[in-house]
Amino acid sequence: MRLLLLLLLMVLFTSACDNYPRDADKTLEKIKKGTLLVGYTENPPWVVKTKAEPTGLEAELIKKFAKTQDAKIVWVNDTEQDLFEQLEKRKLHLVIGGFTDKNTWKTKISFTRPYVKQQKEKHVMAVLKGENALIVALESFLHQQKSSLNALPASYEAN
Amino acid sequence: MKPIEKFEFPAELVPLFQKAKRLEWLTLVYLAITIVVMVATMGNSQAMKTAWFEDMLSMTPSIAFLISARIIAKPANKEFPYGYHKAVSIAYLCSSLALFTVGSFLVIDSSLTLIEGDRPTIGTVVIFGHQIWLGYLMMIALVWGSVPAVFLGKAKLPLAKKLHSKNLYTDAEMQKADWMTGFAAILGITGIGMGWWWADAAAAAIISLDIIHDGYKNLKQSLFDLIDQVPKTVDNQKTDPIINHIEDFLKQKPWVKEAEIRLREDGHIYFGEAFVVPVSPDNLTAYVEATSKEIENMHWHLHEFIITLVSNLPQPEEK
């Protein structure tokens, strides 16, 4: 019983801390006012490759997210396979490309909570594993965008 | 063929047995709810999956207890002249194997997580429009999965000793495993939130050693019981002192010259026989019947105690 009380106190204490949950590698702290390494693979309307930086629904979302963190984005274009391998080796912070929650890589890397549902497909983004502050920040951002997001895919489709 | 009288517990223990059965039903309901709650909150956390798997397996002792409670109630018959008491030993084997498996699974799983450097990611969920970190929900689920287990285990221990039910005792130890893994997982998730990705697996690995120890101890004992080891006490698994007591009792009888006994445990009932060298051949039938009655009255464990008359005690085989 004493152990139980001690545990509960500990949990309450740690949870009361400001920046909780935290990252294993302090990734979010590094991204803030620093650089966000984003891998992308073309998959319209989610990600559209152009001569300059990519556009598309997800690319625009990430640009907005980077702004909230005061971060500069470094874009890396590659195939899905290579991008996920680099994410696994922790060389990228996140990867976009219109992935759904049925993606077979889900055991090896982490995906965000589905942020938009379209034609019964739940769309997710891939994030560096074990970085809880980063994923919470990204999911919170995506959640705030929710109202505008639901209308978005249709308008992109029309283009 | 002489059938063995239907007997389970003496009148004063029957309410305790009923209480044990009620506790086991309660445990099953509680575990079923826990399993659903866990699935709802587990996300992609390995720690939660482990705790969930542990909860699934920890239903085994309760199920084994309830099934065996039904089987042993059957009276002995021509096909099963010794009755169905051994069902209890089989239930005990199932329970201890489950406990051992939980421990082994935990140690392998958590070591692999540590070796592979697998970093658990815990994201957020939205409940009633509020976005919260899933880790908090997991902690609540784990508190639900741990705290009642403490009380269930504590309620079962004294019953197990009084009913001489090793299965129930193993079940109480399973509940200990439940709350220990639960608390370890809470610590682990708190650790993950602090950015210590290894915390959760490390906590699980330490806890699993204790569970393996309990599981191994009981698994060994359940196998020994099935190969008719002398009766052992429920809690510390020492040879039951009643064996010496019966032997002394027999040797003090005026009609007994020499005596040796042999006992085995069938569930919570002891069966056994005494080999007695009588002083004289007079009046033996009456002596044998009276003395077996007296011995059977010593303790409710003792049932069907047979006295066999011999002219010499069998000597241990010499090498």
TrEMBL record, chain A:
InterPro entries: Solute-binding_3/MltF_N. The keyword Signal applies. Residues 1-16 form the signal peptide. PROSITE patterns: PROKAR_LIPOPROTEIN (PS51257). Residues 38-134 form the Solute-binding protein family 3/N-terminal domain. Pfam families: SBP_bac_3 (PF00497). Keywords: Signal. Coiled coil: none annotated. PANTHER family: MEMBRANE-BOUND LYTIC MUREIN TRANSGLYCOSYLASE F. This is Transporter substrate-binding domain-containing protein.
From TrEMBL, chain B:
Its main location: membrane. The chain crosses the membrane at residues 25-44, 85-108, 128-152, 179-199. Coiled coil: none annotated. It is found in: Membrane. GO terms for cellular component: membrane. It holds the Pfam family Cation_efflux. It comes from the Bacteria. The keyword Transmembrane applies. Residues 28-227 form the Cation efflux protein transmembrane domain. The keyword Membrane applies. Keywords: Membrane, Transmembrane, Transmembrane helix, Transport. SUPFAM superfamilies: Cation efflux protein transmembrane domain-like (SSF161111). Signal peptide: none annotated. GO terms for molecular function: monoatomic cation transmembrane transporter activity. It is a multi-pass membrane protein. Belongs to the cation diffusion facilitator (CDF) transporter (TC 2.A.4) family. This is Cation diffusion facilitator family transporter.
